[in-house]
Amino acid sequence: MTLPSFGPINRIERREETHPLTWRLRDDGQPVWLDEYQQKNGYAAARKALADMAQADIVQTVKDSGLKGRGGAGFPTGVKWGLMPADESLNIRYLLCNADEMEPNTWKDRLLMEQLPHLLVEGMLISARALKAYRGYIFLRGEYVDAARNLNRAIDEAKAAGLLGKNILGSGFDFELFVHTGAGRYICGEETALINSLEGRRANPRAKPPFPAAVGAWGKPTCVNNVETLCNVPAIVGNGVDWYKSLCRPGSEDMGTKLMGFSGKVNHPGIWELPFGITARELFEDYAGGMKDGYTLKCWQPGGAGTGFLLPEHLEAQMYAGGIAKVGTRMGTGLALAVDDSINMVSLLRNMEEFFARESCGWCTPCRDGLPWSVKTLRALEHGQGTSQDIDILLGLVDFLGPGKTFCAHAPGAVEPLGSAIKYFRSEFEAGVSQVALPAVQPA
């Protein structure tokens, strides 16, 4: 599988005081191993957390920082950590890293794992200390072969240096960390489906409650966090809450920085660590360089295939959850897609819905049956064989598969781009309606 390169991230100046996630990156794109990582202040935050901070203090620091999940849902990380039971008798608990990055058009976590594997290891070590978790798993997308190799080497280096294992740095804290490669299912990005898969079960979402914080992996208290989320933890612990909050732009309700990007027919597709609150236009024009010659921006998605389409005039929106919500969709993963004017929206949506239909776990009827129905309907419109009822059928599916009507968030995410495409480009769907009168259905 060919994935985009990460060269464009090196076109901006990265500084420790403003780029907590990426300032350690090498210009040659090679991984930063333990010696170099420690020369660049690596594991200093872990030493501080282990020697000078109580578990509750780490949790409160992360809560006060305003750090939110970077996988797409945006739930406050410190609040999630606070859901773990305080009962000391429940001494078996797990920290899981969700590295099953299968959202189309998203590869931000891959960058961190391939080039800064020790940043994730350190983030998980500090987080495990806060959660009193003695074992951690990195649930990794199976196609990320380089990431698996680099993470395993980083774990081995950390073990040899006494940064993982028993009695870490003489603190009395034990933490073992393992890489677990998945079999390649989009649904494993849902945390309870991830837990089922880790246990060797079918990757179906679980009913909640109970939530993983109470009953998670192997029935024990479990916390699941995204790669980018965990990679923010060392800088927050090391530099403090006020510093972290100062990184975002005025007006942003999300704190810190975010890996953002643009792909499509833009001049400089890539990923950049940028402050929350930057406008989408700055991201599109100043970093991605706008559209290539001969192409015009038709619409764009702000953060993966499961987010709604927006128009060029929406580029004034600020890139944070509330800023994107104001223009009608979700920020998602923050890696945007530029759709050019040569693309037919019906064909694009048919392609997307084929992916989502294939990746449905089949656990609930609306998703299992509704998504293939959308594919069949879109395929008919794509070939000019649709009926006058087909657009209403698609809009009905957008409603029937919407939030709160399915077992998990897979189907709502799948139909969000469909609903927005019909809203903004209805004429392209109408063009697929057959002009040939169909024979009337005779009663039996």
UniProtKB/TrEMBL annotation:
NDH-1 shuttles electrons from NADH, via FMN and iron-sulfur (Fe-S) centers, to quinones in the respiratory chain. It comes from the Bacteria. The lineage of its organism: Bacteria, Pseudomonadati, Pseudomonadota, Gammaproteobacteria, Pseudomonadales. Transmembrane segments: none annotated. GO terms for molecular function: oxidoreductase activity. InterPro entries: NADH-UbQ_OxRdtase_51kDa_CS, NADH-UbQ_OxRdtase_suF, Nuo51_FMN-bd, Nuo51_FMN-bd_sf, Nuop51_4Fe4S-bd, Nuop51_4Fe4S-bd_sf. Gene3D superfamilies: 3.10.20.600, 6.10.250.1450, NADH-ubiquinone oxidoreductase 51kDa subunit (3.40.50.11540), NADH-ubiquinone oxidoreductase 51kDa subunit, iron-sulphur binding domain (1.20.1440.230). Belongs to the complex I 51 kDa subunit family. Its EC number is 7.1.1.-. Pfam families: Complex1_51K, NADH_4Fe-4S. This is NADH-quinone oxidoreductase subunit F.
